[in-house]
Fold these 4 entries.
Entry 1:
Amino acid sequence: MLRRAAALLITATFLLGGCAAQRTAEDDRAVRSVGVISLLNESTPVRHFGLTVFNNHPANVEQGGKLKQVVGETVKQRLNSTRPQWTVKLDDTDPGALIDKNRNLAAVENFAPKHAKDLAAIAQRLDADLLFVLLDSTGQNHPGQGVGITFRAVSNDPDTVSVHSFITLYVIDRNGKELIRRGAINGNPLRVSNSALGLRSDMSTLNDPKVRDSVSLTLTNHLKAAVEESMTRAGY
């Protein structure tokens, strides 16, 4: 799966985006239309790590397209400001076919070259000169994948949880070639008070709609900031 394959890629270098320079308006002078694609997992993980594996409690909060909406709106807002002459197209197509096609890939060393043909086909379908693709990744020294929350039984601050948006922004040309990739590093993960969220170690409070809504809002707000940072660091 593209989501899982992308998650295996991340290292510190990946989050920093390698050595490629920021994109400039001059670099993009021939661009007229771009597409925005989210491959982020909408089933966001919430994980409690206990003293032993028997005390670990995993759960998931279904976002139902909220992450995709945040990605589309945030990227479009940024491009409307930094590249106002561009037409921005939000890809509403379910990426399932693309993901299913690659479900047998246990790992990839480089996302774009492995999937250049598929990415070029999407660009052609959208009539886009560039694609802005968001994928899940993993942190360097912190447990968790993609957008989610973790907290521990043993912590210096037991009343807080870690909110993370481990994502990678790829900018891909119409031929499926990677131009630049960036991740978010500021406040990622971010320690926030659990008193407002109301999470318990056994995840029982996630059955409360108010708790789920609070967790969902916290995650989408953090994702928005991460996408904005990734766009800035990419030159947009």
Entry 2:
Amino acid sequence: MGRKRALRRSIRSLAPLALAAGLPPVVPLALDEPAAVFDEWGGPVTWDVLVGTTSVWLMVGLAALTLRLYACRFSPTAQRAVALFSWASAGAWLIHLAGLVARGLERPGPLPWWAGPWATVAGALLAGATGWLVVGRGPAVPITDAPPTPGALRIDPSAEERAVWARSLFSPLALAGAAVLTVAGAVGVAADGLGLVDVFVAGLAVSTGIGSWARIRVDRSGIVITQPVLGRALVSVDRARIVHAWAEDRGAAGLPLTAYGVFESGRRFGYRTRSRGPVLCAEVSDGRRLVVTVNCPYLPAALVNTELDRWRIPGQRTG
């Protein structure tokens, strides 16, 4: 992806959250600055406290998403996920701010129905979907037709045989992260009742928990990691975009400490279940590397290369 195009995608991804962080201090310029603001969760607070606290949290979120955007700069799909979260967060806060202004900053009481918790969640989802569409799919991964190198792992099935390799994957640390988020959300609900933040934490806990369990399948079509409950692909690389595959005995140790479950880190992506151990690797035609922690990765690596031979070498192509 060219630098200019990547910069445009980054701006489209982060601009709404930057706007949401910078807008609250401007509101008093259009309105008489109130002596106190009544939020729907408690008593009066000064406008400076409300604006300062919110802006700090939004700027922290903006910094975190900027780092995440840099980490997944080689993955258009992961960049779209950053845009979705950025637009959704910005939409939620702007709806809440508009509700405060519409109700009256100095008036206690509930916000208008369109700024309530569930309406705000619906608006945030709509804003996130808009961000997903605005950022776009990104450039297509090129197709490669060169067979794997002669020294690559292979198996020797007969021409009529069709081999399939599949395993279940489970990440205890990802599940532990989901448990921590669940406890944090429950504490928040018990202390202050159900709020917008609790809804987001619950959604993050569910998505993290579901992502802690997956299934990998290697066959003639390529490599696919799916979520069994939802039946959707978490990671997928079809055979036309795989250069070759190989196995590493200690490849997991070189991954970032935070890379568990489905991950994107620079040019590496895939699924990690443990801190050490063997990994299945596959080079993708756009320069990225698929990395999956599995026991005995030599067989699936050999199967990938064998299927690539069948598809790419004249006289061996079988479909």
Entry 3:
Amino acid sequence: MERRTELEIDRNENLVNEYKGTLFEYLVASKLSKNFSLESSFVESLTDDLKEMLYFYERSIRAVDSELVDALPFLAQKVVESIEKNIKQIKKIKKIYWVGKSKVGLNLEANGLLNEKMINLAEADLLIDVDTDIDTDIDTDSDTSRDSNFGLIPISIKLSKANSFVNTKNGGVQSFISKYFAYERAPFFQSVLNSKIEECYNNLGEGLYSLANLKFNGEFDRRWIECGYSELPGELPANMRILVLEYYSQIISLIFQNCLYFYNEDRMLFFRSLYPLLGLGNNSITQIICFHGKDSVSKKRYALKGLHLISYNELLKQHDKIIIGEHKKGQSSFEIIHPDFTLQIRVKPMNKFTARAAKVNCSVKYKS
């Protein structure tokens, strides 16, 4: 059997995650529509291409993991029940938009309705239009009434294995600090960081080329491949892999030092800067994470393990309780710890370590 490369494995896992995530969003939207007698209008909103894509995704996942496909409807139903129970504005729904997927979702973005009502779709999977003319017992101070028109409720849906980190944000390392940390000195820190990353990259190239008995000319050129060396860290000889891992450790150490500075300068501003990294950059969004795992009795691999519903203001109440964990030498990540979650910030290659660009991956693990 031909051995799959590290990149091929990552791509296959990413595809499965993309497919199951899309199917899960669809099932939640579909079941919620059915509960409010909106199923026909929701189905009509799906383009033929989208329907074909959903069929393809289902067949593809079923071919490798039929148990996962069979479990998705039940897990989606539990998310729907959580939405109906915990978001009290949802008493009567006028329309459900599958953001960026269905025709109505695309039209909603195109026709300016969002700008008119000042609704931010960032990070939303569903947008629920509720009837605000009826008595919905809406608390005008609640988290989900922050927009000028609280009849539109954005919801983010995630499906994750229990006790694992959920990916929430990927960003380029060369703009990470200036983009997400709203401090006056952030652009300067980003500039300094980029200069040091360039220096670290050149040191990495010189070190690896020296081990390969080659001269480094500022880029990983075709000679690297022609000599039989991989562009994936896991496929390098041990003495070379150490240099690559040290390179990423150096970058994350620089980001860690910047975060410590911001944390000590203004704790509240630092906490607010974390929201986009948590998948909560939209301050009116409600995020629902469905956790699955193996049941010790039934032996089902995708049993429901819990639902986590969180919103912007709920997290803000404990902003003063966050701490930054230490960065250990040689590691490519560090953690920011909150009573409700752990945010992991990690530096990874975009695809191949030979490219100058690297990415910052943010993932969250919520405490039960």
Entry 4:
Amino acid sequence: MNLSIRCNRIVKELLVRCAAVVLCVFLVCVTGCGIDEYIYLYPPSWGGNDPTDTTDAERKFFEFNTRDFLNIEAADEYYTGYEVYYRVYNKSSVRDADRSQINTYNSNDTTKAMAFNYVSNTKKFRRLIRVQDDLNAPVSGAFIPRSASDRTITIRLHEEGAYAPGIWIDGAPWYQIPAESVLWAPKRSIQEGGSFTDRSLIEFTFDNFTVNNPTDYDITVSDNGSETEVYVLAYAFAVGLDNSYRSIYSEALYLGSITILE
């Protein structure tokens, strides 16, 4: 065997070994060096009621349909349920501008996967809190936990006329303890950050909307806003946890806006 052939074989063996080393390094990086796996969650679907600007107390509720079956089928080990985020306004035109910007962002294929960050960080929406009404304590986990089957979720924020605040699942009241007939109650989270105090979990009543109070982080206060009503704009997301236990979110579902009167 001449020297040229031997050199060619040596070079080929070195190339094969180098390729194997590169592949191993790549696999290690993919599995252990922080390259994220994309997990898709199906957003909830519209429940059929848009309460925006209605004066009919019967229609003043948010509603959406869950997609538990699809999310369990596609992301069973990650999917945990649904969250609702809201913001309060004292001027309907400012609310409408935010709604338009969020809906445009959420409908764009290049940005809709990041809709949650836009809603929560850019527009400063707050997480709706489900509390044990007798203790005024927030519960852990998703606002609406996952289930084995799809459901219709109805949320009333405030009392008006014959209608009381609460959460309903498939038309039935959602009780903390059925024997005691105590409803889960939605509350505002007005304090900045993730901690809660008695003051930071309060009801959606007009008297509690202190539009001139700078400590209420869930309100956008505008000059020449209404002095007799406020508008609560809301979006829903499917939510889960990735392999590093970080929260992941679906695209946003627009739920509409509820007007709360003085």
